[in-house]
Structure formats: structure tokens, C-alpha cells
Amino acid sequence: MNKKELGKNQSLAREINNKIVLERLKEKPLSGTELSFDLSLSNATISSIFNSFLSINLIKKVSSDSTKGAGRKRVKYTINDDFGLVVIVSITDNSLEVVVSSLKNKTLHKVSKAIDKYDLKTIYETIFVIKDILSMKEFRDIRLANIILSLPGLINKKTGELQVSPQFDKEIFKDKNTLLYLFTHNFNCPVYLENDSKLMTLGEMANQSFKEHKSGMVIYVDEGIGGGIVINNNLFFGSRGYAGEFGLINVDNKPIDEFVSLRALTKIVKEKLHLNINNSELIELYKTNKDVKAIVLNSTKYLAKAIIQMIQVYDLDYYILNGRVIDFGEEYLEYIRKPIEEYNKDAKIVFSTLREEAIILGAKEIGSEFVLDHALKGLENYEKK
Length: 385
Fold this sequence. Notes:
alpha/beta, Arc Repressor Mutant, subunit A, Nucleotidyltransferase, domain 5, 5-stranded mixed beta sheet, 17 strands, 45% helix, globular
């Protein structure tokens, strides 16, 4: 091995060690001795990594413990929350949620608002809410590291643009860069558009929901339908980020969204029962009106058919169902489960225990990951000089 190859290998090892140490410190405060033992790295290596992180204020000292049988103090370190804030914006069918998160994924502040529709007014309201939060005393002196926008619709991972969303007002799509421009123009930080179903899937992964199965799918049934595919504990995006768009699967010559989504079910109830209701009222009527209940339960056969298609194509046998359809209860789930298990007895479908909080958890994960990865790359470039 020549000197150039040796240098490359040493640089790669350093990058890997930096990332592993940072991930461990994100979980809990640790001392150099603890990390050295757990990771089988020398004290000198850990000390060098700590010094690099301290030079850019990425970590900080948090405590000192006396070692057993001696008076010597053992210093522990953790991620420095003052290194940057992550702001998460989650827009759903009828609500807007803004969450300020630390780099250790702790919620520092949260604001929720009801909204009528997805339009430019909603976007401007979101920007004003974020500015109000960041002007608070506890956040005033901490930089905004990035903003994660959780949105329904197709988001191109190559360009970062929102391509289309059935829920958003057409005015937003006059220019595909409208959303990014409005946020980057108002905030001096990176802004990332992320699909809500993909974030939901990342949240379930962070919650260890796929620990036993390693592969499976999250299906999000709400105003519309989305999904995320997990293969060997990795979220599968596809070439442009569109993988897992479950609502586009055709059943009986129509996209399943037209049979199963709350938007579709509300429309069917209006047409067949002449009831002028919204999505939330549909869920309440399901509990008391037998005709509404019959329409909803009839829709489960289409959902089951679509899941069977996923089993046929991807051979996945674990499915997590999320969204407000959870409020239809266990009978709804059983109607879906029965034909699936008849097709494949090993297939399992469950309701999410996180519900919409999975979106926030997934956004926290990638938001902090983007910040820490960017910090490490900057550190590596500096050390190479």
C-alpha cells in the first residue's frame, strides 16, 4: 500500500469514527473512557476527536463523575444544543404544527394551528409563526441550523422541489420553487422539503417499529394516501424519491386513493347518503351511523387488494397503518387483515402507536442528521488544509 492509499484509509477511518462518536453522544452524555471501551478505540483517538468537536463548539462538558476507588474526576460530554436549532413544519389536512427541536431531538417549543386549506396565506402564516418563536428570549442567541417542511405530495429528491400535491392550492405551483424561495428568502439557513409519509416511516424506524421485521411498509391513510417502504432497515426512495406512493396503486382500474382516502370516503358519503360532511365528521358518524360505517368498511377490500399487490411485488410481510383511519378502530383493521392473511398467513398489519407524531420524530431525525453531517464535513475540510 502506497502513502496516498494509506492516507485515504486513515481519512476514511477518521470520518467513520467521528460519526460513530457523535451518534453515541447524541444518545446520552459519555466520557472518553466509556467511548474508548465501548468502541474499542484508543484513549488518544477519542481525545483527538473530542478536541476537534470542542474546537467548533459541537460538544460540551456536562458532568464529572468520581471513578471508583479514586478521587479523580471523569468528565462526560454531550452534543451542544446551542450549536443550532432545527425547525420542523408539519402541514396536514386541517392543521399546521411548528416544532423547534434540539440536535438531540428534544422538543423545545411547539405551536399548533387549525387551517382551512393549503395556500399562500398558510405559507405566510407559517413564516410569521417561526419568526415569532425564534424571537423568544431562549432562542434569540442560537442560530437556526435548518428547516424541515413536511408536506403531502411528490417531492423530487434530486431537485428538492415539490412537484405536485393534490391538497395544495394551484397558486403555489405557478413556480415549482415558490415554497423553497419563500422560506430561504426569510430564513438564512438550508430548507428541506420532505414527503410526510417518508418522514412518518423514518419516525417509525427511529421508534424501533421495524426492529423485528427489518423490512416492511408504512401506509398513511388520511386526507390522501401515501407510504414508505423499508428494506433491510433502510428507507427505499427510488430514483427520484417517489417510491412508496401507495395511493397510486390501481385496484379495479382506479387509483386506490379514489376508494380509501378520507377525501374519497367523504365524497362517497355525500353522494350516496346526501350528507354534507367533512373528514372529521365522517370519522364521528362512522361510530353512530350504520350506513356510513358500511361504506367505510366496504372500502377496506380495496386497501387489502393493494397490500396484496405489495406482497406480490416486494415480498413484504409487515405493514404499519397510520393516519386518522386509526380512529375507525379494530373492526376496520380486522376487515383489512382477514383477506391479507388468507393470501399470506405470515403477513402482519398493525396500527401505528405513534400516529402523526411519527412525522415529527422522522423530521427530527433527518434535521439533526443534516446539521451534524454538515458540521463533520466542515471539520474534515478544515483538518485537510
